[in-house]
Structure formats: C-alpha cells, structure tokens
Amino acid sequence: MRPSGTPNRGQLKLGVILDGAGSTADGWRRPEIKPDASVDIGGYIDQARRAEQARLDFIFIADSLFITHDSAPHQLNRLEPLTLLSAVAGATSRVGLVATVSTLFAEPFTVARQLASLDLISQGRCAWNIVTSAVPAAALNHSRPVEFANNDRYKRAEEHVAACLALWDSWEDDAFVYDKASGTYFDRAKLHLQNFKGDYYQVTGPLNIQRSKQGRPVLFQAGASEQGRNLAARYGDAIFAMTSNMTAAKAYADDVRARAAHFGRQPDDIVFMPRISPIIGEDQNEVDTLYHQATRLADIEDAIRTMGIFFGNHDFSSYDLDGPFPDFDVATAPATDHRPDRDPLAYVETSTPESFAAAARQRDLSLRSAALEFFTPRTEFVGTPDEVAAAAERWFHAHAADGFIIRGGDFDRFSALCIPILQRRGLFRTDYEAETLRGNLGLRPAENRHTAERRRREESHA
Predict the structure, then answer these.
(1) 122 and 224 together in one domain
(2) What is the pLDDT of residues 63-100, one digit of tens each?
(3) Shared-domain flag, residues 434 and 365
(4) What's the predicted TM-score (pTM) here?
(5) Per-residue DSSP letters for 54-103?
(6) What is the largest CA-CA distance in the chain?
(7) Beta bridge partners of 129
(8) Does 337 score more than 50 pLDDT?
(9) Among the residues of 337-401, which ranges form H helices?
(10) Per-residue confidence (pLDDT) for residue 181, from 0 to 100
C-alpha cells in the first residue's frame, strides 16, 4: 500500500513518444525506420493503433520551433503536433493524444481553442505538453528579438496556462440546451466571460467551443529548474520526468508534490512518469547485441558534445578520442530546462559527473567509449523482459514513478515482452478503465469553476 500523501493508484501508467525518424542524428539509419517517417501520417496512425492495442495510456508528440543544418533528421522535417493528432484521433478510440505546444509564441485564446478542438474530436483524449521554448533562436521565427525567449518566459507561461484554464471554463457542461420547441439553444447563465487580465495577456473570452467529456485537456509538464518545478507543481496533471535514476526520480517527485501542496493541490492531482529508453532482449546475448546496435550508429561528435554539457559545458574536442578518459576538474552543468536538438540533459541524473568520470577511469574506458555509453546509457531498463519488468515494478513500489514514458526504444518489444509480465503481476491493465485520458490516468474530474462555485453556494444555503 502506498503511504499517505502519495497518489493512490494501483497500476502503472504507460505512454510512448512517437519520434518518426528518431530523436538522434543516427536514428533514421536503423533498418526498420523509414527515412520520411516524421511526415508519414500512415505510419503514425499505425503506431497509435498498436499503442492502443497494447492498452497504453497515450502517445506523445514532441516539437521544436527552430532548426539548423545540424538538427536531428526528425526535427528537420516533421508534422505539426495538433494537425498530426487530429488525424490520429479519427483512427483510434481510447489511446490518449499528447501534443506539445509552446506558451511563448501563441496567444492563449488560440491555444485553448485548438486544444479544446482536439479534445472534442478525440472525445476527451487530448493533453497539452506545456513547453516554454527555451531555445532563444526560436524567437527569430516569430518576429521577436532573440532575447525574448529568455525574458520572463516562466512568468509568461504561468499566465498563459492560467488564461487557457479560464477559457476552458467558459461553458458549463450542461450549458447547451438545444430545445427546438422553445428556441433555447443554450442557457445564458452558464456562459461566462473571463475578462482575464495579467501582465502579459488580456483575454475577454468566452471561448467559442464547449468542454469535452473530460472537461479540459490534461496538462503535461517537464520542468527541471526552480521555475519549471513550480510551473509543474501549480498546473501539471502529469509530469514528464527527465531522469534515468530511481533515487533522483523519487527526490524530484517528492519535491514537486511538496510544492503542489503549497499551491493548495492534493498529491494525487499529479501523475509522475519518468522517461525510459528500454532495450529488451530474450536473453543476455541478445541484450548485448541490441545495445551495441543502438550505439553503433551514434555520431561521436554528438556524443562528445552532449557529454560536455553534462560536465559543465566542458570542451572535450581537444582530447584524443581513443586515449584514456581525460583528467580534469569536474564541474556540473546548472539545472536548466534548455533542451538543444539532441536533448543532452535527459541523462544528467543517471549519475553525477564525478561518479561518471571516476567509473570511466576505473574501467579504463577511452574517451570515445565513455561518450558513447553516456549518449546511450545502459540503465536498469536495458535487459531481459523479466529484468525490465522488475525495474518498472521496483520504481513503482519505491514511489519514484506512477508510470513511464517510453522513448528511444522499441515500444513494440516492450508491449510484447514486458506488458504480459506486468499484467500477470497485476501492475498493468488488461483493458482501458475509461473513455477519456483523464479517466485512464486516474486523475480527478476537471470540474468547471463556475459550476463548482454554484454548488458551493447551494450547499452553504442548504
């Protein structure tokens, strides 16, 4: 049984990031990947259907607003998330649809309307992955000075989300009467102006679209910095945790839950879902083979640059790649939500820079070998089906995770090899519990604020 103060959910939640041609520079070269996968809607629909057949909670579409010649192929040429998921919605019926949308370059009314539309199209399966567009150069694609991305972006994000939440409460759930006999289309008392006024956004409202079966979209967030954690704690329904270390994951979840309580929220308001990249083999020989295949095509320059960020932006380019791991004063990169093209901070909490360097020297690893291992870490989720399922169970019972978001691995192998084990252990569903994403994630109903206020007034006068 989970201790008091932690979410009371009896089974794991599972989602998958669909990366098209892959999240790294080399991913598209794998034999099973179509080079144009990131613009192939048929491929996305097929993957979404497979995720639904496996009873996964959701598919997740990442995004970026700036590219260079050195960006990963998936970022160079890919479909916009809301457009993509609108097409997927019509081809599926239960799996959730998580779209990444920035708060920095779009108005709250537009974002709220687009997400509410996807929520209605999918009959209550939409979620918003809230990002703040930390890459400064993205501002140049939106008629803004490059400094705009760094100026008060978290204050803007908090205000943006607050405005969207207000807009999603424009209509109460039973506002539309549709009484042809009387000519009453809607109950005028249940449509509400918002008159939202903040430092950055002023939105009168109301929103010109009704609420969905789940009330409003589920909110995902992945803040790692101080401001990011506060944003996640204040508004996040599901937290996309960027860690591969169980102790770090639990510390992060405990910290965000404590912050959530400060904002007047309950611990079970939030689902914590670390990202994992499972590599699963039928036996140890196959595990080793698959792991080496995963690292074989890695671009060593990418790996060196990525590891350099982990070590406080240390420049490894002057060292001999095939010489021993260098001896230097180790510095840790500051906590940040900056995610360059190859997402280098995803693995920061796998170990500390000091312990990673010490282990590399103890094992007599070359700089090349150390960088490749860092780039594709051999985590607890690299192993046989029993080992990977046991790791998932261990994290769950340690209260470090309510579930996991799969990326970079083969989710079909996870579905085929690990999910049956988790089901036999009573840790994963055999069928969906609800029609909505909010229901399947075990989240509280999103009650309309005006309906709630009316109910409180009625109860006080009862």
Answers:
(1) yes
(2) 989 888 878 888 899 999 999 999 999 999 999 999 99
(3) no
(4) 0.88
(5) TT-SEEEE---S---TTS-HHHHS---HHHHHHHHHTT-SSSEEEEEEES
(6) 84
(7) 100, 220
(8) no
(9) 353-362, 367-375, 385-397
(10) 97
